[in-house]
Amino acid sequence: MKIRTGFSIRTKLLLVGMLLLLIPWMSYQYVREMKTYLLTGQEQALSLTSRAVATVLHDRPELFNEESQIDPSNLDDNEIYAAPLPNYINLNGDLSDWGEAAKQAEQFLPTPGEQPIASDNVIEVKHTLGYRGNFIYALFEVLDDHVLLRPKKFLRVDAADHIRLTLQDPGSSPKRYTLIAREPGRMSIYLMDQAWQYPISGEPNYDLAAELSLTDDGYNVELRIPRFMLSSDTRISMMVVDVDDPESRTIAATVPTTPQSENDELSKLLVESPRITKILKGLDRAETRIWVFNKDKRVRTVVGNLVTEVNDPEIDKPSNETGLDYVWQMVRYYYSSALQTIFTYIIEQPSSELADRSIEERNDKILQDALSGSISSDRRPSLDKQSTILMSAHPIFLGDGILGAVVVEQSTNQVLRQQRETLENVISVTLLVLITVATALLIFASRLTVRIRRLRNATETAIDRDGRIVHQRLNAEAKSGDEIGDLSRSVSNMLGRLSQYTSYLRGLPDTLAHEVSNPLNVVNSSLHNLSEEIPESANSKYMERAKNGLNRIGMILRNLTEAANLEQAMQSETRETVDLIELIENYVDGYSFSNPEQRFEVLIHSRPIMVEIAPDYIAQALDKLVDNAIDFAAPDTAIVFKLRRLDNFAQIDIINQGSRLPEGMAERIFEPLVSLGRKDAQKISLGMGLYIVKLIASFHGGDVIARNLLSSDGVIFSLSLPIHDPQSQSYAYQN
Amino acid sequence: MARKVAIVEDDFDQRENYRDALEKSGYLVDTYANRREALSGMRSNMPDLAILDIMLENEMDGGFDLCRDLRALSPTLPIIFLTARDTDIDRVSGLRLDAWDYLTKPLNMQYLSVRINSLFRIVDSLALGPETNQRNNAMVINDLEINEDSMSIRWKGKELSLTLTEFWLIESMARHPGHVKTYENMMTITRQSYVERNTINGYIRRIRNKFKEIDPNFKHIQTVFGVGYKWNTDG
């Protein structure tokens, strides 16, 4: 009877352990909260910064005067000047929006580079530089006799006409960009290697934008550089590169459009008011960019740089490690890439709603607000979509009027980085804790399971199949100090009390018989003495009936005590090894001899079958079975004996035709005092007979079962006894 | 001169019934209700035969203890035990008490007289001495020697110590070697009130054990399953 519903303790504990997974979830929530909090803090700090900057600039209109504009004639050798442009420039090849600025374009000729310029090569560049709003614009009108565009499937990007742009912040390596086109229209812009031959990554740069359009005698390029790529200290150089031979595709000429200093220094680009810049320099903060606009939304100055990349520590796939190192590296690699995957899901990306804004609009709104006198802040995704840029704007007052506005921008990537690190730590720690706890739980649960199972097995074997108590004490877990030990001890207690009670119950018939036998003896001897004293009473029918009654009571007592006596008697019984077939044949012969009216059939499947038994008791068991069979057999039917070997058991089937066993009786029939009733009221049926058969079978290490015949009405009793194995030790009691 | 029988039985009704029955049979009867009384009574007034109930008042084995005490007083006193359980017989053997016979309750008064008679016959024949026994009524079957007078049996020259019932059973089987004595026959032979097959099996087992003490290879008593037992001359 095994009813196992649901999970084992082990599974349950592990499921409980799964609750640990709440830790990363909670930390994620916490980190999100923290992020919000940090961002709020950052926004407040930004708005303070913008206010501070604005405060510095209040009531200083001279800073915004046109006179303070840079005079292009006073430029140093390595300074170039971007003129303010009247309009925003549309990058479309139409030069009309450049207005006057296009007419003031400077002319540049090729400079002798590594290779001499062919005399028949026509190459000449007109170049203009200007700014509007948050952008620097450059125009290149190129006169070229062979316009050569980039061939398809050509990896190198220096094998066609192109433009080179170099930006360098002090203290960091220069960034080289190549502008190149396969066809008129938007150009591809790549960050280049040192030799200007290959892009560092295949990804084009989208912060920069350039448009190429063909003309009758060459081509035009409009280039737009966002101001945030240039701090006040950023150096710049630009150069048009001419390639004419479609076969060799070698560089025919280079035309720099920025001053070429002797020591290869790049030029400084001046766009803003140097005085404001000087003031703001003191406020320059890492990863912060400060804009100052005049009330026409013209940029007066911009300082600082945004760092928008979230740098992930890149772990490469291991290649040259061996053994454990290799495994460790692999684990680390996969672990971190798994973490990356997780992060892309759980860390909020800048919302796309922000990303849809055009570049011009990015801080236009808050600038507008600031210029109309209110303080505001906003968020936008960075151009590379890696993080969010927080912006805060503050008006600059002149008396009651407005002089301009300060816009402070800062990327959130510091917060993001902190968020990532925290999460990463939490996840790693949680994983470690989870694994540790799970292992501990597993070990603990296994131990618990093993202990409980041991206790269960001990409990199950403490009582045999017939419900008799074999062990009164469980040894399993008896000495443990915990609840399982308690359980074991209470089961032992229970067994002890139960066995006391069962031994009382088992002794009850015996005690009863013993007690009854004395009064019975009184009646018996009194009757005897009565018949001696009054001789005529001896022949009275009542005397006869009284004696009959006494006999019946006597038989009942015998029956009651038989089982108990048998159990005690069997202990001292020695066994013999006999052929069961021969025994049964003799038995049937004998039985037929004493009951000639009863027919028997004996079916023997194999012979001999050697068993080690106490023959008297087996005969007694057979007596009970046969008596039983005869009682229930239909008239004039034979009792059938079937003998066969089943594995290590000899099986004796005793079959009678007749009534079937009632539902559920097949199991109970062997219990003491369970009787099916008899046809003959004079016959005593205490239901002890089959119980005795069971006792005898168990004593021999065998069993007896009853079931209804499948094919016809009738019952089959099967007595099985272990086959005698001459190799094995006799397991008879050694007294 | 009438023989004197002592009855030790704690139940008044039974005790008095035994007394009546035995007095009718011509014996003098002393009755005792418990071990203490019995021992002091018999010390001064030794009977010719004692019938002891095993359970005496609150002593489970009062009869056994009393038997030991009486044996100390008289090694030859014939003792009959009254038992309520078959298994007590095994216990008597186990305790090696020199009981001459035992009877299970409820008693059949006729059989009680018969048994007492037989025991006194044995006492008498023993008093005559062994040499007379050798000549009279000795029945010899192979190694088996049955003396009807002294109700003794020898196997291969060695005497078995048997109870009356055991003697009667061996004798009935050996009288017709090779003939099956059915359980029904044997039940009558035991001269007891209620006898089960198991009781018979128990007797045969004890008998075999007694033979085997003398001769470990003893196999002359053969079981005929489902019927009974027979004496095999070529066991």
TrEMBL record, chain A:
Keywords: Kinase, Membrane, Phosphoprotein, Transferase, Transmembrane, Transmembrane helix, Two-component regulatory system
Molecular-function annotations in GO: phosphorelay sensor kinase activity
Pfam families listed in its UniProt record: HATPase_c (PF02518)
Cellular compartment(s): Membrane
Transmembrane spans: 426-446
First and last residue of the signal peptide: none
Main localization, broad class: membrane
EC number(s) reported in the record: 2.7.13.3
Record-level GO cellular component terms: membrane
Domain Histidine kinase: 511-725
InterPro entries: HAMP_dom, HATPase_C_sf, HATPase_dom, His_kinase_dom, HisK_dim/P_sf, TCS_sensor_his_kinase
PROSITE patterns hit by this protein: HAMP, HIS_KIN
Domain HAMP residues, every copy: 446-503
Name this polypeptide is given: histidine kinase
Catalyses which reaction(s): ATP + protein L-histidine = ADP + protein N-phospho-L-histidine
From TrEMBL, chain B:
Name of the molecule in the record: DNA-binding response regulator
CDD domains xref list: REC_OmpR, trans_reg_C
Sequence positions bearing 4-aspartylphosphate: 53
PANTHER family noted in UniProt: DNA-BINDING DUAL MASTER TRANSCRIPTIONAL REGULATOR RPAA, REGULATOR OF RPOS
Residue ranges flagged as DNA-binding region: 136-233
InterPro entries from the UniProt entry: CheY-like_superfamily, OmpR/PhoB-type_DNA-bd, Sig_transdc_resp-reg_C-effctor, Sig_transdc_resp-reg_receiver, WalR-like, WH-like_DNA-bd_sf
UniProt-listed Gene3D superfamilies: 3.40.50.2300, Winged helix-like DNA-binding domain superfamily/Winged helix DNA-binding domain
Domain OmpR/PhoB-type per the UniProt entry, residue ranges: 136-233
Alphabetical GO biological process terms: regulation of DNA-templated transcription
Cellular component aspect of the GO annotation: cytosol; protein-DNA complex
Coiled coil regions, renumbered to chain: none
PROSITE patterns the UniProt entry points to: OMPR_PHOB, RESPONSE_REGULATORY
Keyword entries, A-Z: DNA-binding, Phosphoprotein, Transcription, Transcription regulation, Two-component regulatory system
Domain Response regulatory: 4-120
Keyword Transcription regulation found: yes
GO MF terms, alphabetically ordered: phosphorelay response regulator activity; transcription cis-regulatory region binding
UniProt keyword annotation of Cytoplasm present: no
